[in-house]
Amino acid sequence: MKKLALHWQIIIGLILGIIWALLSSKFGWSEFTLNWIAPFGTIFINLLKLIAVPLVLFSIINGVANIGDPSSLGRMGGKTLLAYLLTTILSVTVGLTLVNLMKPGKLIDEQSRIDNRISYELWASSQGLQIKDGVNYLKDPEYFQRAQEISEVTKSELQDATVNEKMQTANKAKEAGPLQPLVDIVPQNIFLSLGDNGLMLQVIFFALFFGVSLLFIPRDKAQPVMSFIDGVMEVFLKMVDLVMRAAPFFVFALLAGVVGQMAGDDINKVTEIFKGLSWYSLAVFLGLVLMIFVIYPLIIKTFTKGISYIGFFKAMSPAQTLAFSTSSSAATLPVTMECVEDNLGVDKKITSFVLPIGATVNMDGTCLYQAVAVVFLAQLHMIDLTLGQQLTIVLTATLASIGSAAVPSAGLVMLIIVLQSVGLNPAWIAIILPVDRILDMCRTVVNVTGDATVSSLIAKSEGMLNYPGKNLRKGY
């Protein structure tokens, strides 16, 4: 019998993980699942993160040093950043278009939305903020009694600890000076940066600086260093290969843990969670599907010619399924590099430079989700955002995506910054928190597919694309 391809094994593990979680919820096995199965999912993500950061470091150094000519480095870097910027703006535009057409926040019952609106006005008043659309329900005698009731409820509520933690992170980002992002890119200590996934931009800065410096020293002195870096990269890629052999089991454990944690011992919790947020989730999901199955293949077809629609997805399916199960662009990076090099035929010089930068800078799926989330939350609270305020969302989401940690749920911290940019309550992230992880899995697939698309475009423009067609690597 022919051996089942890796991505099919991963998909089977993924489906079995969800089924197990729902069964364990129904029969009261949740504690067993969380104590004895879920930890293997955590081990899987830890293993991939263990490999991802040093792989980013060595692959960028290797990519820059192998370019050979400093002038071509500047040209390739400019093209890469421009391509990532354009795909990000495109994804936010898709998100805003969908949420304005579908209006998911307006499909909730009227009374709940009125209560939400009064809560928003009470919050805005306590913060000294101006009501965004000029309408004031608190001044309407019809809602005065209800406003008093809500005011008492609001004061007695305890804020979710997760929301508090993420709000503190966002406040630090908001209070920083205009050049703080530039300061944050330059590390004080590279070893501290290597130990923190949130400091990936610092690792990239060091790698670029190191690689560029290698270009300016004599070739005979640089060669031993380059051979060492090349050897180290091969070791890390072999580590990825070994980890991926156990990926189907790890993915099963990961999904069993994530869904099991959401459900607890009550299967109805999952049903209620998804029912209440189904229209919002649908809007985000449709946007992400459009990006993956229409926009990216259209870009590939237009600019690279040789790669077929089916061929592109066959080539990228292992990375896409892994991205879905891990929710982390950084954790998926080693497999993305293998798929893009071996299956799409992109030269190693391109992948080792473009993909690690993309894992940090390119957050197309995350930006699309933010655009939908902010407008949905506004609609839910009966707030009509103007075109100008929606353009602010585009700008803030695009800038916030640069350097956001390529780890699960980092988008929530970015969402707080975007909400604050249009004067909305950042604590509203608690509303969409229950479905965030599932949507995070979907938007990570978009991020990874976007990285592969851009690297193919850059390779084509540099004459370094050699698509193997039907001769894809065995097992993929």
Overall 3D geometry? globular
Number of extended strands? 0
Number of helices: 20
Distance between the termini: 16 Å
Q: Note the main sheet.
A: none
Q: Sketch the topology as an H/E string, one letter per element.
A: HHHHHHHHHHHHHHHHHHHH
Proportion of residues in β-strands = under 5%
Backbone structural class = mainly alpha
Task: Write down the overall mean pLDDT.
Answer: 79
Low-confidence stretches: 153-162
Rg value: 23 Å
- Residue share in helix: over 70%
Describe the structure.
This protein is 78% helix and 0% strand. The chain is globular and about 80 Å long. It is built from 20 helices and no strands. The protein has helices at 6-26, 30-67, 70-102, 110-127, 144-156, 161-175, 180-185, 190-194, 200-215, 219-245, 247-263, 267-276, 278-304, 309-326, 329-343, 348-361, 364-380, 387-401, 410-421, 429-461. Helix 1 packs parallel to helix 11 (247-263), helix 17 (364-380) crosses helix 19 (410-421) and helix 17 runs antiparallel to helix 20. By secondary structure, the protein is an all-alpha fold.
How are the SSEs placed, and which strands pair?
Elements: H1 6-26, H2 30-67, H3 70-102, H4 110-127, H5 144-156, H6 161-175, H7 180-185, H8 190-194, H9 200-215, H10 219-245, H11 247-263, H12 267-276, H13 278-304, H14 309-326, H15 329-343, H16 348-361, H17 364-380, H18 387-401, H19 410-421, H20 429-461
